[in-house]
Amino acid sequence: MTKTVLRVDASARHTGSESRALTQRILDRLAPDSVINRDLAVPLPAIDADWLNANWTPEDQRSDAQRQTLALSDTLIEELKAADTIVIGAPIYNFGIPATLKTWVDLIARAGITFKYSEAGPQGLLTGKRAIVAITSGGTQVGSEIDFASGYLRHVLSFVGITDVQFVAADQLMVDADASHAKANAALEALAA
After folding, report:
1. Using CB atoms within 10 A as the burial measure, which of 5, 138, 150, 169 is most buried?
2. Contacts of the segment 41-44: beta carbons below 8 A, 24+ positions apart
3. 119-128 pLDDT, tens digit each
4. C-alpha 74: how far from its chain's center?
5. CA-based diameter of the chain, in Å?
6. Which of 150, 2, 168 is CA-nearest to residue 82?
């Protein structure tokens, strides 16, 4: 049973958003005890030189300003840590993920916190979690050679330790909306609560 879900919506639209509708249907299917909402339509600040300097300064040596610079990143990571399941609404914009979702990734991928380097290579630290990605597109077929979103998201989630990743796709909506919705419905019905 799913206890806590982190819902991350990356669509710029609230009304008429296929990915938001799909994330809601996934939540309805999972029926979690609690939901943490992260709406990326309100853009996150991109990392910059100040952020990088703060991040690479040892925690016990950070100034108050550096701690403040990393505060949002810390909050986003705590949201991930608190969740059993992460549900991401990811529309495909121009063959990839929305810029705001990439910014979220930049803010949560932190060495020593969500992953670490070892002799065997990077090791994710957010293990034991499940991710379900509601991925939508107008014309891009998920899994095709022009889909640079689904493989990236699978890789990034695995990089931080989330290897149980499932996709519910409503792709090529502008090509055949009925077939796209039918495929998404079948994937949704196959999801284990």
Report:
1. 5
2. 41/9, 41/10, 41/11, 41/12, 41/13, 41/14, 41/100, 43/99, 43/100, 43/103, 44/72, 44/76, 44/100, 44/103, 44/104, 44/107
3. 999 999 999 9
4. 16
5. 56
6. 2
* Superfamily for domain range 4-190: Flavodoxin domain (3.40.50.360)
176, 140 Cβ separation under 8 angstroms: no
Residue type, 3: K
Contact indicator for 84, 130 with CB cutoff of 8 Å: yes
Q: Render pLDDT for 138-161 as a digit per residue (tens, 0 to 9).
A: 999 999 999 999 999 999 999 999
Tens of pLDDT, residue by residue over 28-80, are: 999 999 999 999 999 999 999 999 999 999 999 999 999 999 999 999 999 99
Where are the chain's structural domains?
Answer: 4-190
Q: Residue 57 pairs with which residues in a beta bridge?
A: none
Ramachandran region, residue 53 (left: φ > 0; alpha: ψ -120 to 50; beta: rest): alpha
- Residue written as token pair 């002799």: 119
User: How many angstroms separate the CA atoms of 88 and 108, rounded?
Assistant: 14
d(CA 85, CA 30): 9
